[in-house]
Amino acid sequence: MDEVPSEGDGLPPETRIGRTALTVSDLPEMADFYRDVVGLSVLGRSDATAVLGVEGTPLLVLEHDPEAPTRRRSGAGLFHNAFRVPSRGALGDALARVQERWQLGGASDHGVSEALYLTDPEGNGIEIYRDYPREEWPRSDDGTVRMGTYPLDLEPVEAVAAGDSKLPTGTDVGHVHLEVSSLATFRDFYVDRVGFETQTAMPAALFVAAGGYHHHLGANTWNHRSGPAEGRGVSWFEVVLPDGAALEALEGRLADGEHAVTEVDDGVSVTGPDGIEVRFRVGTSHPILSGSYL
């Protein structure tokens, strides 16, 4: 039996989500959608790949595979990518773009954030959200964050829109939410092995984070997925660490587990539960802009 890391082997509080990557069948349509509706800028483009982001910072990689099948109904994978904006005004601008050019799928107040939901042309979920000040987040007696789902009044959000067509500086990928086949397996890997901390646990969902954030990763079994992630949809996502020492410590924990570790870009890659690849690197560069990707 593998040795489980001790409680002190968690991730540093500065840990964050970096880029996410999707396998797509129609690269031009998807790149245009994320530019015109979501508001990302195209930072680089080739026949095989499009890289989108904000102010030169890559956030989303679209990997073209015209033969990729549609994700199976039973397959695990992405529930949504969550783009976090720095203000309610930026959220209002995003709402205006979605209402003008696409269809809003939902809107919620989670007690820690205000969130808009939509689905891209190939069925991938998207959240665009802004956080409330951290000191206002509701917390349980043990200090973990309590999140809920309540109706969001869109009028105050619409009222502060400035008409910007792009996501502003400061936008990032706040979290990634996955559909998994087992919450226990998700917890074993991302909490016990990688080192995230549980923030909110529900009967069919689990939210984990570093540094007391409400969640960097979410997982749910709401749709009873039972197979691995295959075909279109999530290709990989990235966890960014603050320094080389943190990456080295993480590599040691991963090496003691059942998942093979391989080198990629300036970090490491692991195929985790449900066949979903997660990459880890130090937050000093953006290797996706190298010539090998464009």
UniProtKB/TrEMBL annotation:
GO molecular function (one): dioxygenase activity
Record flagged with keyword Oxidoreductase: yes
Pfam family, one: Glyoxalase
Keyword Transmembrane helix: no
InterPro entries in the cross-refs: Glyas_Bleomycin-R_OHBP_Dase, Glyas_Fos-R_dOase_dom, VOC_core
Domain spans labelled VOC: 16-131
Keywords attached to this entry: Dioxygenase, Oxidoreductase
Gene3D superfamilies referenced in this protein's UniProt entry, alphabetically: 2,3-Dihydroxybiphenyl 1,2-Dioxygenase, domain 1
Domain of life: Archaea
Protein name as catalogued: Catechol 2,3-dioxygenase
Organism: Halopenitus persicus
Lineage of the species this protein comes from: Archaea, Methanobacteriati, Methanobacteriota, Stenosarchaea group, Halobacteria
